[in-house]
What we know:
By secondary structure, the chain is α/β, with parallel strands linked by helices. Helix content is about 35%, strand content about 15%.
Amino acid sequence: xxxxxxxxxxxxxxxxxxxxxxxxxxxxxxxxxxxxxxxxxxxxxxxxxxxxxxxxxxxxxxxxxxxxxxxxxxxxxxxxxxxxxxxxxxxxxxxxxxxxxxxxxxxxxxxxxxxxxxxxxxxxxxxxxxxxxxxxxxxxxxxxxxxxxxxxxxxxxxxxxxxxxxxxxxxxxxxxxxxxxxxxxxxxxxx
Length: 191
């Protein structure tokens, strides 16, 4: 299992969270009936979700003890954090909204996890997730190529590589589970 350095992770938080805000992923889940439910529960980007849904019960889940420790240093009483592996984690009650930003690509075989995540939702619940779509870009191809170079192979032997699929693949997976799917792809370029 990878060890996460919260300082390094947070150093790139603007870039990593951009897909969460543009287009506004929580806004797409913001139905009036959910805003009125005091038992709303969500996952990930916890402070933003707590601000959006102040009457909600918000839970943050992460498999990294370092990330949970960091989250607890900025503890917001509206948010509970727990150390758990998404593969085995189970909520104690059905979830109205489950939000995941840049997480699933780190879970090997995460498409096999989708039926269980959907099963955890309350009736009319929402599963909103974002995964990066840049793993075939030249920068990522070069990193993998360099990792096999004899000069770097020892240092990169245990490096975990994320993986994600295209929007059409997730759309098909979720449609087969009976979900109404709103999937999109966003390509951005910053100069």
